[in-house]
Amino acid sequence: MIGQLGLGYQAWRAQWLSKPKLDQLRTKRLRHTLAIAAQLPFYRDHWKDVDLTEITGPADLRGLPTIGKPDFRGRLDDITVPTFNESNARVTYTSGSSGATLRLTHDWPSTLYCNAAWIRAHMAYGLKPHQRTAYFRFEPVKQGLTAKLRIFRNEFVPFESGDAILADLRRIRPHVLGGYPSYFADLIRMVPHDDLRALGVRWLYAGAETMPAPLAKQLKRIFDCPLIDMYGSTEFENMAFECTHGNRHVTDDSIILEVLNAEGEPAAPGEIGDIVVTGLRNDAMPLVRYRIGDRGAWSDQTCPCGRNFMLLPRLEGRSLEAVVTPTGKRYPVILLDEDLIHIDELFQFQVVQEAPDRLTLNLVCAPGTEAETTQRAVKALVDVFDEPMTVTPKVVSAIPRGSGGKVKAIIPLEQARGN
Ligand SMILES: [Zn+2]
Fold first, then answer.
1. Separation of 246 CA from ligand 1 center, angstroms?
2. Ligand 1 center to residue 83 CA distance, Å?
3. AMP-dependent synthetase/ligase domain spans which residues (predicted)?
4. pLDDT on residue 73
5. pLDDT for the residue numbered 96
6. How far apart are the CA of 18 and the centre of ligand 1, in A?
C-alpha cells in the first residue's frame, strides 16, 4: 500500500519536473531498461552489431534498430525476463489491427506507476477524485486500487437497449462519459439527445479507436461539453494526455516517444512520421524502439500549463489504417474526414478499400436524411483524392465490430480481401 502511494506520488511529481531533472530521470530509467534488455536472447541477437556502451541517453537511441511485433512473434520467451510469469506479474494481450494477438508481461511496479499515470491524465483535464465516470466498451475493465479507495469511480454500462442505458446513466449520474468512439455513435442513435444532455455530463473522453471528426462534432453539440482524446496502448498504458490548455503531452516519465521520417531519421517538429516507443517502466518485458504502428508529429513548443512533457499535436492512429490509391498515395483517416466533418447528419462512417481504385463507404446517418447525406458524403470523399476513385455508398444501422470489439474507420485493401 505504502509502495503504491509512493509510486503514485512519483508519477504526480514527474509531470512538474524541470527540464534538466526530467532528462536526468529519463536517462536513468533508460540505462536501467537497456541493462535488462541486454541480458535477453532477443536483444542479444538484435543488437549484435551495436556497441551498447555508446548508448548513454535518450539522444543516442537512434543508434539501435527499431523492433516490431513480427520481429518477436514466436520469440516471446526471448524478450521476457524469465523470472516473471502469471504468478508474479500482470499478463495482457493486445488485439493487433490484423487480429493477431501478442502476449505482454508487465511487472507490478510498472503497472502501479501506469495506473497512477492514468489518474494523472484524468486530473490534468480537471477531473476530481470524487467524480464518477460511466464507460462503454465491449466488456468491463477489472477494478483496481482506486475502486477500493472509492476514488475516480467508474461504472460499466452494458449496451442493451436505449431505455436500459438511459436508466443506468440516470442511476450513476456520471460526471464523465468514457468509451470507444463506436459506442458513442451507438449511444446517440439509441438514446434521445435531450435525455443525454439532461444528464449534465461535464466531460467526454474517447480512446482505443480513431475518433471520426463528424462524430466528435455531433457529440460536442449534444452534450455541450469538451471531448478529450486519450492516447494509450496495452503495451505502454497512457502515452499522452491533454491538459486544460488543450495540448497533448507525452508521458515522458514512462516512455521515450520518437517520431521517425521515411528514412528512419528523427522527424523535425511538425513533420508527420512513424511513432517509435521505448518503455521506461516495465522490467519484465522491455520494449526498446518499438514500432507501435501510429503516426504523428511532435512540437518543440512549451505549454503554459508548466509541464515539460513533450507536446504531440498530431496523432494519426494506426498507420495500417489508410486508403492507398493506385498511384501509391496514402490517405489515413485524418485526411479522409477533412470534408466529411462538415456533414452533421453523418454519425459514423467506415471506408472499405475493395480494390486500388474502388471503395465502399459504410454510413450511419441521421434518420430520414439517408438519401441526401449519402450523396453529400460520397462527393466529400471522392473530392479528397487527387485521382479518380469509385465510391459505393452503403447505409447501415451500425458499423460492424472487428476483433477485440473495435470498430475501424478504414479497412485497408489487404484486410478487406482477407474477409
Ligand atoms: Zn499543457
1. 7
2. 39
3. 159-279
4. 62
5. 42
6. 14
- Give the C-alpha separation, 223 to 214, whole Å: 14
Residue 380's pLDDT is what? 92
Å from CA of 251 to ligand 1 middle:
12
pLDDT of amino acid 95: 43
Distance from C-alpha of 10 to C-alpha of 21, rounded to nearest angstrom:
13
Q: Which grid coordinates are listed for 93?
A: 494481450
Centre of ligand 1 to C-alpha 34, Å, is 30
CA 228–ligand 1 middle distance (angstroms): 13
pLDDT attached to residue 98: 32
Query: Which helix (H) or strand (E) segment is 351 a member of?
Result: strand 346-355
For residue 139, the SS3 value is coil
pLDDT number for residue 412: 84
| Predicted local distance difference test score (pLDDT) of residue 55 | 92
- Give me ligand 1 centre to Cα 376, in Å: 38
Q: Which residues of the chain are modeled with pLDDT < 70?
A: 1-2, 70, 73-74, 94-102, 138-139, 143-147, 208-210, 317-320, 334, 338, 341, 402-407, 418-419
pLDDT of residue 180: 80
The domains found in the chain, sorted by start residue, are 2-112+232-318 (3.40.50.12780), 126-225 (3.40.50), 322-418 (3.30.300.30)
Please, which residues have CB less than 5 A from ligand 1, an ion?
243, 245, 247, 303, 305
- Say how many Å lie between the first and final Cα of the chain, rounded: 48
Taking CA atoms, 318 is separated from 209, 211, 260, in Å, by: 9, 12, 15
What type of residue is 356?
Answer: P
User: Ligand 1 center to residue 380 CA distance, Å?
Assistant: 34
